Automatic annotation (TrEMBL):
Classification via Gene3D superfamilies: Acetylglutamate kinase-like, PUA domain
Main location per the UniProt record: cytoplasm
Keyword Membrane: no
Function: Catalyzes the transfer of a phosphate group to glutamate to form L-glutamate 5-phosphate.
Residue ranges of every copy of the Aspartate/glutamate/uridylate kinase domain listed in the record: 13-236
Highest taxon above the source species: Bacteria
Chain residues that bind ATP: 18, 169-170, 213-219
Protein name per UniProt: Glutamate 5-kinase
Species this protein is from: Parvularcula bermudensis (strain ATCC BAA-594 / HTCC2503 / KCTC 12087)
Transmembrane segments: none
Length: 362
């Protein structure tokens, strides 16, 4: 039986709600107070991922150019202070305390810092505080950032083990084509997990007319991350006085993306790591063993392509293709002299890019 938005929202125990810059600056249709009230009404723990720092900062200091890297960093720093003040004012009406949490990939890539961030977030919502998460754009670089706050919201959902991700946008979900260009575009209310890939693939193809790409592409990318981690995802319009309340009452429509099977917290962290620190090639027998849920032994390593240390996240290759990645159980320098039965990668500490994804389709 297909689940509904009211069922999902009412049953959620831990949720991430994401608000984009387009809503933050659209004060004619969106109010922070309305969403704050919606979050307060729900019997859940919630983390709010809020964009808008650069836009808000630019309103305060219009002489800075957000297209210039240094100016954009400065605008983010200016806007963050204003943005968190605005959110706190909205939650003050409901006697809720807000807290600012700024994340960067180097935090979520490092295992100990990842765990520290998770513990801090849990401490906040366990004490009734609403964490307001954003990327720390004042210090990020083009090559080392989440890319957009839709993906950050998905990563945050994985970080805290949420059971629901709600992405509020200026559109009410996914359509068969871009509704602003195609009057025959049809709204898609529910996407089963096994059918999600065709929408994602269409969105990634810039020449495809199959999916509207006006801001939807990054949301679909975020949905893909979340549902592969077992987090049901809703894309809905935030251009309403009470967007979550209207979803619960059925007054607003949305698109629901069915989640795959839950994966362990450790594997969620592994699959979210941006950078790899080394790589090695394995033989066909080792790959077959990994697919059968065995660990990788030294006897299955053909060669170390890039050196690594114990604890590094490394790529696993076969026939010149990356087939997975995982947490090294030993230094690469020790593999050549190690006994064949020495564990190089434990099965619980690695992800096969095809096999582990396919298992969620079953």
């Amino acid at each position: 039986m297909t689940v509904t938005a009211p069922d999902l929202i009412e049953s959620a125990k831990l949720a991430v709600v994401k608000v984009g810059s387009a809503l933050i600056t659209d004060t004619d249709h969106f109010t922070m107070g309305g969403l704050a009230g919606d979050i307060k009404e729900r019997p859940w723990h919630a983390v709010l991922v809020s964009s808008g720092a650069v836009a808000v900062g630019n309103e305060r200091v219009p002489t800075l150019d957000p297209k210039q890297t240094e100016d954009r960093h400065a605008l983010s720093a200016i806007g963050q202070a204003t943005l968190i003040t605005m959110w706190q004012s909205a939650f003050d009406a409901y006697n809720k305390v807000a807290a600012q949490v700024l994340l960067t990939p180097d935090v979520t890539d490092d295992r100990s810092r990842y765990l520290n961030a998770r513990a801090a977030l849990r401490a906040l919502f366990d004490n009734g505080v609403i964490p307001i998460v954003n990327e720390n754009d004042a210090v990020t670089t083009r090559d080392f950032r989440y890319g957009d706050n839709d993906r950050l919201a998905a990563k945050t959902a994985g970080l805290i083990g949420a059971d629901l991700l709600i992405i509020l946008s200026d559109v009410d979900g996914l359509y068969t084509s871009n509704p602003s260009k195609d009057p025959d575009a049809k709204h898609v209310s529910y996407v089963p997990y096994g059918e999600a890939s065709r929408y994602f693939e269409a969105a990634e193809d810039t020449k495809s007319g199959g999916v509207g790409t006006g801001g939807m592409r990054s949301k679909l990318a975020a949905a893909r991350i979340a549902i592969d981690w077992g987090v049901t995802t809703i894309i809905a319009s935030g251009r309403r006085p009470h967007p979550l309340r209207d979803l619960v009452t059925g007054e607003a429509r949305c698109t629901i993306f069915e989640a795959g099977d839950k994966i362990s917290a450790r594997r969620r962290w592994l699959s979210g790591v941006h950078e790899r620190s080394g790589s090695m090639d394995i033989d066909a027998g080792a790959l077959k063993a990994l697919k059968a849920e065995a660990s990788l032994l030294a006897c299955g390593v053909v060669q170390v392509a890039e050196p690594f240390l114990k604890g590094d996240v490394i790529d696993i290759r076969h026939d010149n293709q990356v087939v997975g990645f995982g947490l090294a159980a030993c230094d690469s320098a020790s593999i050549g002299s190690a006994e064949g039965s020495t564990i190089v990668l434990r099965r619980d500490d690695l992800i096969l890019t095809e096999h582990d994804h396919d298992r969620n389709d079953q």
